[in-house]
Specification:
Structural class: mainly alpha
Mean pLDDT: 90
Distance between the termini: 101 Å
Largest sheet: none
Shape: elongated
Low-confidence stretches: none
Strand content: under 5%
Oligomer: single chain
Number of helices: 27
Length: 474
């Protein structure tokens, strides 16, 4: 029966097209109805033959000059052919006969957007909202939200979506979109109120629960967010994005075991992603289960082998286990991808320092300082390594440079003094130490760490006590 109906429709369409061609050629006196022209236009539109569809609309209007529907179709194809002003003129004419069709504001909007006049497009839709209701009003609100998005009035995008949900609380498209815009516009509190109202009316709307949770998460109310995610999952246990976000919330409150459970559920419900494996690795890392952390980091690196930071994270786990050679191998892999990454060079320097290969450590620390000369950690590591290796002249010079580059951080007055002591320039070292103590007396402990034998020098102890007592007296 279906095939028969389809064949019959094709035969009717062929007869209609034949009559249309005869009419164009002036060979027949047969009469075509307005609906016949609409069917012919639909046929050419389905064939993606815009010029033929436009021609059919033009010929139809020659026979039915007051047919608003044909005018709308003509305007639509003019827009497709980038004849925007002509389309607007046709729509103005159509408005004289029928202003109740939603095609009128939507096509005007399309034309104004194509002309890069989004303010006019927004005004058309804002005025049309007063004329339409129900599904048509909701369609216009979606159109208006897109227009506001185009010219970056993002607060109004949120407003449009809120209005849609106030009319249709279960509108899935609006629920999916407003989740992003609530966070983007910083209107999480308003989103909470809106979704609490929706849940009161429709308690089994899992997207409303999910959006409520993300709004709480946006305000860093992680416990409340987790509760709301759990309600969403009670309604739809396959909502993998809820497990993903809940895993993040657990990480934020340092409940890493619970986070792992959520993230493993994501892997069950969706295709494997490097970010999920990496997040699970991060949780095991925080739990100091370094072998398991590496297991998941490696899974992440198999999916995204060009992510240098994953190899860096694996290196950190080896460093924490004092497996410095293995950490170095991972860092070498990371640095094949991004050689000039300060963090990678810093950790490489730390590894060689721990292996007492100080010349190699100095090279990597020097790279960090070159890349980020104002970085306190890099400067401190380089100078400490130079002192440890007995490179006192270089340590003194680097300390003075670091002092200037770090806005006169007094730590580097101490390291300069330590370098002078190491070079047996005691007089100059004491003067430098006195200057450091006068600026930042509590930094003296750091110098003792750098030069452990310093407390055996009576003049150093006397000088330190003098300034430390002054500080206590204050």
């Amino acid at each position: 029966m279906g095939n028969y109906s389809s064949r019959r429709e094709r035969e009717e369409m062929q007869e209609l097209l034949k009559a249309y061609q005869n009419l164009k050629a002036g060979r027949a006196a047969s009469f075509l109805e307005e609906e016949d022209f609409e069917r012919i236009i639909d046929y050419y539109d389905d064939q993606e033959d815009v010029p033929a569809a436009l021609e059919a609309a033009v010929i139809g209007l020659e026979h039915f000059p007051f047919a608003a529907q044909l005018m709308y179709r003509k305007a639509d194809f003019l827009i497709a052919q980038q004849q925007y002003q002509d389309a607007l003129e046709v729509l103005d004419a159509a408005a004289l006969y029928d202003q109740t069709d939603i095609s009128l504001p939507i096509l005007r909007t399309d034309a104004y957007l194509a002309l890069e006049e989004p303010e006019k497009a927004a005004r058309v839709l804002e005025e049309a909202l007063e004329q339409f209701e129900g599904e048509e009003r909701i369609e216009l609100l979606f159109e208006l939200a897109d227009v506001y998005d185009d010219y970056e009035d993002f607060q109004k995008v949120f407003d449009c979506l809120r209005l849609i949900l106030e009319e249709d609380p279960n509108n899935e498209e609006a629920l999916l979109k407003i989740c992003f815009w609530a966070d983007f516009t910083g209107r999480s509190e308003e989103s909470i109120r809106l979704h609490q109202w929706i849940i009161d009316e429709h308690p089994f709307n899992e997207l409303a629960w999910f959006n409520l949770a993300t709004a709480y998460q946006g305000l860093k109310l992680y416990e409340k967010a987790i509760d709301a995610y759990q309600y969403a999952l009670a309604i739809d246990e396959k909502l993998d994005i809820a497990y993903r976000n809940m895993g993040d919330a657990y990480i934020r409150i340092r409940k890493f075991r619970e986070a792992i459970e959520c993230l493993e559920k994501v892997l069950e419900l969706s295709r494997p992603e490097d970010v999920i494996f990496e997040a699970i690795g991060h949780c095991y890392h925080k739990l100091e289960n370094f072998p398991q952390a590496r297991f998941y980091y490696r899974k992440a690196s198999h999916i995204n082998p060009e992510d240098s930071r994953i190899y860096y994270k694996i290196a950190i786990t080896y460093y924490r286990e004092s497996k410095f050679d293995k950490a170095i191998r991972q860092l070498e892999q990371a640095m094949k991808i991004h050689r000039s990454q300060p963090d990678f060079n810093l950790l490489m320097g730390d590894c060689y320092f721990q292996l007492n290969q100080l010349r190699e450590a100095v090279q990597y620390y020097a790279t960090v300082v070159k890349l980020k000369p104002r970085n306190l950690r890099g400067q401190e590591a380089l100078i400490s390594c130079l002192l440890q290796g007995g490179f006192y002249d270089e340590a003194h010079s680097q300390s003075l440079q670091a002092f200037e580059l770090t806005k006169h951080n007094a730590l580097f007055l101490y390291t300069a003094s330590a370098a002078l002591f190491g070079a047996a320039q005691t007089k100059e070292a004491l003067l430098q130490l006195e200057q450091a103590l006068s600026v930042y007396p509590q930094g003296f402990k750091k110098m003792v760490d750098l030069v452990p034998g310093l407390l055996q020098v009576p003049r150093v102890v006397d000088l330190a006590n003098q300034y430390l007592k002054k500080r206590k007296g204050k």
